[in-house]
Amino acid sequence: MKSVYSLVLMDDVVEQVDRLAYEANTSRSNMINRILAAYVSYETPEQRIREAFSCMERLLTNEGPFQRLLQPSESMLSLRSALAYKYNPTVRYCVELYRGASEAVGELRVSLRSQNAALLGSFSRFFRLWNGIEQSRWGTVDSTLESGRYARRLLAGRNLSSAEQGERIAGYLGLLDGCMKLYFASLDEPERTARTIQIRYNNFFADGDTVL
Predict the structure, then answer these.
(1) Is residue 106 within 8 Å of residue 162, measured between CB atoms?
(2) CA-based angle 81:209:59, to the nearest 5?
């Protein structure tokens, strides 16, 4: 929760705060909040989100197939990855992490911009397969599927550290992207591919960890 407070500050101090805020692409209020939180050793929701995203970027973009996109906000991380399909279409992954306390830590959105009906159809069939695999393991999964768009809530465990949450979500994204690439590379063998994807999924969660 945030409240409005009245502070009396020196103009020179405010000038330095504004400089830091500009460099960090944030507001004066957010920068003052960061400075005070650091001074009293308190991790703000924004710090938690930044640390989780930093971990995800390191794991997914340094040596992986993902490319980082321009961030729409401090609470979102956007990535893209190319599919092995005609004209190399790209899939966009957007992870939003919530600031407030709730059962879910955030939401994953996957989108594919295309007018190709066959491509969109395969995208939908993959995520119906994916949903079926997830539901068979975990039960109900809070997700939605539309033409070229998939979304699901993430429950990565609020008792985990920010870095652990980022690592957990990054692992899930790597699994999802790898399985999607396998699916599109083997469209002529749907049954065998489905079995392989299910085995990969179950092996990934063999230790019981989950982002669901």
Answers:
(1) no
(2) 35
Angle, CA of 142, 156 and 184, to the nearest 5°: 60
pLDDT value for 162: 87
DSSP letter (8 states) at residue 186: T
Res 3 pLDDT > 90: no
Q: Is the pTM of this model over 0.85?
A: no
List the chain domain ranges: 1-42, 45-204
Fold (topology level) of 45-204:
Yope Regulator; Chain: A, (3.30.1460)
Count CA atoms closer than 13 A to 41's CA, side-chain side: 0
If you count them, how many residues does the chain have? 212
Pairing of β 106-112 and β 67-68: unpaired
CA dihedral 194, 96, 98, 142 (to 10 degrees): -30
Here the tokens at position 64 are: 């992986």
pLDDT value, residue 9 = 85
- Token pair of 94 as six digits: 């957007």
Task: Tell me the CATH class for 1-42.
Answer: mainly alpha
Structure tokens at 54: 């930093």
User: Positive or negative CA dihedral for 137, 140, 141, 143?
Assistant: positive
Whether residue 130 contacts residue 112, with contact meaning beta carbons closer than 8 Å, is answered with no
